[in-house]
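Chain X:
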Amino acid sequence: MSLHLHLDAIGGVAGDMFLAAVVDAFPELAPVILDAQRAAGLPAEVRCRFLDHRDEVLTGKRFEVDDPHERTHRHAHAHGHHHTHDDTAFAHIRANLEGAPLEPQVRTRALDMFTRIARVEGEVHGMPIEAVRFHELGGWDSIADIVGAAAAIARLQASWSVSILPLGRGRVRSAHGWIPVPAPATASLLEGYAFMDDDLEGERVTPTGAAILSHLAARQDDRGVRGRLLASGSGFGTRTFPGLSNVLRLLAFETAQTPQTDGTDQVAVLAFEIDDQSPEDLAIGLDQLRESPGVLDVLQMPAFGKKGRMSMHVQVLATPEHIEEVARAIFAETTTLGVRRQVVERRILSREQMQVSIGEHTLRVKVAARGSLHTAKVESDDLRAAAHGRVERERMRRAAEDEESSNG
């Protein structure tokens, strides 16, 4: 069985609404989110909390960030005293996240969301990504939203879908002046998504909300969701609309994992060589690549390059729809100056994921059909968490794989 999460954008999608909906459905994730936000460097005086909320129709949660410095800045701006802060620069935020004591997957996902926003902001305003400043997103509230979303997404390990999105109307004030709704960066992030106009004014999907949806690659099609409803959650925004709750609803489904049948699919292959990066730094970079969205596997092997130099050949397998993002991640994490890439067809065996109980632990086991035989392999992450020491890991691995192979 697997987890599928559907976002119903009744009032819209924003970072704080996303976090509130997740915690309303999964209360146990609140400390996970708050710990990640604090690890990202939020000062002690910045207070993050989840609040019970009720409008005239529904009940749920709200996520609030109380930043006393931001209140002071807003007051200064209201009186015409504008400030330029280095901490709104994308490069500064990226450096802070790279140095923060975050779990690798949380850091990778947060950086991906910020990078998506920076890339489209740079395109909209005609500037390189390193020069982008997050005038509206540089505060601790936006950092809390994105890092918190990354922590929740990493922990849930689910597939995602989203309803038709509300378009919104009118204009919003930005550091660059008045801009139309949806904001240009938001529109760029959500190209390909279906929208509807429900005659309500205002911004309905924020840049942070759009970055979350883009990062999730949340599908939006006519297949619908089929499965057992496990939980639901409602996350409220700060605005109010006449006759409509400003809420993002999350529905959590347990779905049967459909066995993959023998057949073919496509995979992106990105290859390059490295001869001028230290082994220690390359190992860190490749670990970061393995956590990047869309990456299926990273392989490395020694090779002899030009002038007889010892080098490292690296091959990255990724989903085709993420090929551009993976290429950018390769350039960010390694010293290579070029990447060869192609989309190839691959043959896949019928396989499905099962769960096996060994003592008090539950291990995921991937079972593949090889003609009349079935082979089983335990997920290494589950084994690492359940067993300590090589002998114990081997015992649990054999017990789980033998059980599933015999059942198959």
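Chain Y:
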Amino acid sequence: MRKPVKIFTRFMLIAGVAFVTSSCDFEVTNPGPVQDEFLDDDGAHASVVEGANFALSTSLWQLAYHSEESAKQITRSGRNFCCPKVPPRVGDMRRDALDNNAWNVAQQARFVAEDASRRFDEVLGEDEASSYVYNARAKKLAGHANRLLGENMCTAVIDGSEDLGGNDVYLERAKERFEEAVQVGEAAGEMQIVEAAHAGLASVLGPGLNRWDEAVDYANQVSDDFSIQAVYTSSESDQYNIMYDLGADDPWGDWTVYNSFYEEYYEETGDPRAGWVDRETDDTPEGLPLYEQQKFSGVADNVNMNTGREMRLIEAEAELRNGNWEEAMDIINEVRTDIQSEGGEPLEERSAENVEEAWGHLLEERRIEFWLEGRFMNDLRRWIDDGLEGTDNVPAYDEFERMPDVTDRNRLCFPIADSEINSNEHFDQDWEDPWSPIYDGN
């Protein structure tokens, strides 16, 4: 059920700096490293949470940077960013082809947020911490950080433990953190945090843990216009929206929409979620035409973590899984017609004659909705696991089918990093990463 309430939430992040709504200007000087115990002071708690927020945004761009290529969401036009001397390995998710950054920053985002919540619980005591607004925010951030790990990592390792698990370990942790955020947020009277945690729970329970009835219960409590985003700034390069930066004519031109699903889709529909513009140049590392994405317009553009439209698509998928394909199509078309094309008209509705066609529309709609947000690789992997890998159902699967010689590289999840294997005494150096679910042995 859709709610008429419209809420937009956005939590600012700048490492070590807290912002409050005010007409005042603040000049901030970075004091450098501080002793850990100083962070126990309640005057530092806002900065502790904003540090966790910054870590989350860094994690998102690192994961999206690799996963969008691996899931064929974009065409690589070469490589200037990061490693120009290394031959391009498009979407290569093998451990020896990746650096440690994505694994390290994703684990850091989880640890910083969870440690912030632990700190508040210990310093304030159970009674005060149970209604402390910064504790609610920290728990929400920990939920998002664990969800990113669950959607992207092949294997779970928590703080050097010998207990290894699948990605569901992270997703269960995300569920617990979001549930705690709901409790503390309600006690603190912070209903925006509560709604954000409801959205997080819906995205974890349904697409993550396959508990669709519970997912729908939470999705129903999220308004159509809800949005919570990872926030980026133009102040420092490690705070940039890299999804914009990689495809920009200046400086990189490493990504192009050319020869991708979105090239033709946007020309046919004018859907702003898939917008691109021809920069009329082939001055890219591989000499491909530079079709620059227009979903993001600058390095300070924010990236969705959860939206109301995503909640509606979760409800639609739940209907499909219950065999109610006509109800699912109604929801899909409500999402589509709520979006104005570049020509100013609502997007055209989709039609289906059976459940198989409805599945195809649902999966394509999620692909469009999550473009350049680091979410589609997880969708592709779970749909293959569910046996939906026929080309009529799963978008992008046929793109892999055309390249059987590289499907072994596209693992569709991040392997454990060398930094973890080398520092964790419980690992053997001959650890074997999971294979791609679509690798045919060639």
